[in-house]
Amino acid sequence: MTDSVISPEIHRKWSGISCLAGALERRVWARVGSRLTYPNLYVMLVAPPGSGKYIIETVGELWHGVLEPGTKNKALRVAPRSMTKASLVDTLAKCKQLKLLPSGPPLEYHSMLIAAEEMSVLMPAYDLEYIGVLNEIYNNPTVPHTESRRTGAVREIEISFPQLNILAGVQPGWLGSVFPEEAWSTGLTSRMIMVYADAPPLKDIFDAGEDETELQEELLLRLGKVSQLYGEMAWDPDAEAKLRIWHLTGGPPAPTHSKLVYYKNRRTLNVIKLSLVSAVSRENPTIGLLDVTRAISWLCEAENLMPDIFRAMVGKSDHQVIEELHYFLVGLWRTNGGKPIHESHLFGFLRQRVPSEKISKIIEVAERSSVVSRYAGTDTYKPMPRSDFGVE
Questions:
Q1: What angle do CA 368, 370, 372 make, to 5 degrees?
Q2: What is the CATH code of the structural domain delimited by 9-234?
Q3: pLDDT per residue as tens digits for the range 262-309
Q4: Chain centroid offset of residue 6 CA
Q5: Nearest to 145, CA basis, from 95, 75, 76, 213
Q6: Nearest-angstrom CA–CA distance, 333 and 335
Q7: The domain 318-388: what is its CATH number?
Q8: CA angle 23, 31, 10 (to 5 degrees)
Q9: What pLDDT is attached to residue 392?
């Protein structure tokens, strides 16, 4: 259904994962040891401006359109795009869900789905109080969330069994300017799954694509059925063994970036959540080996691109990066007594400053501008005198 949407493929994939996770709310869970895990996710689609993050709007429209089977009642509770911390809590308090179960008392909980194309609208500043609420509710607490206020019509708020699902778009520059360095050692960033893409695919702007009305209606019907699922999903023995081994071996391949140190502590939790989503997507009553394998694959694909986010956060122009590269190479050249410099040094320097897909382009521009010169027939370079080059 998203083939006609001009958004990067990996963003479309994670939008689909988030869409299904949101429809499960707080009704489906998996047990690992003594802990219950629900499939709610905080997913951030990270990309430069104009990169097609409006796939998030598609998810929001789907959530809005899901009806309880056989009725005209909205099945899911979707938040407005812009909320202060107080309005977030007030809106969540209005998202009460009451589900009749085959036996026992009705199930009551408060689940809210957030589809925000721009994180800067949802949370304009790095607000510790706001972030504290997001952190608390992410954990699906069994103790009600309570607040006391000095002013306003409502002085006491109590929200039983709260839950949030967030799919938001964010620009690397916003992360770099709003999130202080210490933010990467706090709870919110360790809970976020950040999915980076540089640019959407180039498509014919006049191609309207195929009529997807029937497909959308079918998808809404399926999400409506998902919105009625309830209960614990068991683990197939081979799935349980796969997850146990992956966890005990450190979750290979694990991220190594310094800003992801605390995020790594929640990787197994993310795999559990994603395994739940995978099993439901296959209409499978239990979590199988395929689901764990797919969940690990989804997560590792996103993690492989996360370092590009931090490089893009720096926000330096190609001109500045090439100037820094020349300065670095001159120093290395002098230190090594004028010996040729292998290209691995150029790649190693640039990978800390620009997204990986730009490295080759930067080196090519530097070479064509006579900032560096390649020794014929080799993978080695030497820096050129500043009088010999000029980068526009």
A1: 100
A2: 3.40.50
A3: 999 999 999 999 999 999 999 999 999 999 999 999 999 999 999 889
A4: 18
A5: 95
A6: 6
A7: 1.10.10
A8: 45
A9: 43
